[in-house]
Design brief:
- With 279 residues, the protein is α/β, with parallel strands linked by helices.
- Helices cover 50% and strands 12% of the residues.
- The chain has 2 domains: 74 residues, Orthogonal Bundle (434 Repressor (Amino-terminal Domain)), CATH 1.10.260; 145 residues, 2-Layer Sandwich (Endonuclease, Chain A).
- The chain is built from 12 helices and 6 strands.
- The chain has a 6-stranded mixed sheet, with helices on both faces.
- A hairpin with a 5-residue loop joins strand 4 and strand 5.
- Helix 4 runs antiparallel to helix 5 and helix 10 runs antiparallel to helix 12.
- The longest helix is centred in the middle third of the chain and has 17 residues.
- The termini are far apart.
């Protein structure tokens, strides 16, 4: 078949979803346009989901289930999407990471936890292990989550590295994760991050109170063409956005947060004090 892209279902949960969709379609002898007509989408959309260029949505997954006659079964694509969204990786996140690999600027904000690109392996493993113990994800998903994070971090080490700005709520550095040794190593990692020529680290202290303009994870990417996209996350959902009407308010809020946060020098001093056990 001309221009047939080979799929790697092990690349991510979204890639596995796309590969299984192609397999189910071909098992019925349908071309992409034939499946598209049955589910109310274009053949181009089917191709994009199969190759991982577009994330599946609940509506799309339900339509596929109806077309294939597997609604409510263990083979349901809606069920598979739920495992992606509530399992190791949230919807929209794999696509965000794809853009993160080529971004010129990366701006991160997190509350409660150190952002993924700044986490040590031990810190990330402690979080994953906790999710397994609570029954939120399986051991296999936990291993995938940590492996995915390490690959994500490695992708940021390149000849022309991006400018990475991280604003952390004070809770990120005060919340103990994995025990004293893990947190000490994590704090050391944050200090090392701040010393790099292409990075900036700021702590948003508790004392700014109501002037903290962001309340949950927000990532902003400036792409090589200078366009900006955002990725925001709740407990159970992730959302990638390119629309200026919704991205620009987040950019504005991020700058306002930087203005009331500690300087990098003061932020590093706070981290050193925490490592010494002083208030």
């Amino acid at each position: 078949m001309v221009n047939r892209k080979e799929l790697n279902p092990n690349a991510s949960p979204q890639a596995a979803f796309g590969a299984r969709l192609r397999s189910a379609r071909e098992a019925r002898g349908w071309k992409q346009d034939e499946l598209a007509a049955r589910v109310g989408y274009s053949g181009r959309h089917i191709s994009a989901v199969e190759t991982g260029r577009k994330p599946p949505t609940p509506r799309f997954s339900r339509s596929v289930d109806v077309a294939l006659g597997i609604t409510g079964t263990s083979e349901s694509f809606e069920r598979a999407l739920g495992e992606i969204r509530n399992g190791s990786l949230l919807e929209g996140f794999p696509e965000y990471v794809k853009h993160e690999k080529t971004a010129a600027e990366i701006r991160l904000f997190e509350s409660g936890l150190v952002p993924g690109p700044l986490q040590t392996p031990a810190y990330a493993q402690a979080l994953a292990d906790s999710s397994v113990k609570r029954g939120v994800i399986t051991r296999e998903q936990a291993d995938e989550r940590v492996s995915f994070l390490m690959k994500r971090q490695n992708a940021l080490v390149r000849r022309d590295p991006p400018l990475v700005i991280a604003v952390l709520d004070e809770s990120c550095v005060r919340r103990p994760i994995g025990g004293a040794a893990v947190m000490d190593e994590q704090c050391e990692r944050l200090v090392e991050f701040a010393e790099q020529p292409n990075t900036m680290l700021q702590v948003a202290p508790y004392v700014i109170g109501e002037h903290r303009t962001l309340d949950r994870l927000v990532n902003l990417l400036t792409l090589p063409d200078r366009s900006v996209i955002s990725y925001v996350e709740s407990q159970t959902q992730g959302h990638l956005d390119r629309a200026l009407t919704s991205v620009l308010p987040l950019v504005r809020a991020y700058h306002q947060l930087q203005a009331v946060s500690l300087s990098q020098t003061a932020s590093v001093d706070m981290i050193h004090q925490l490592r010494r056990g002083t208030p």
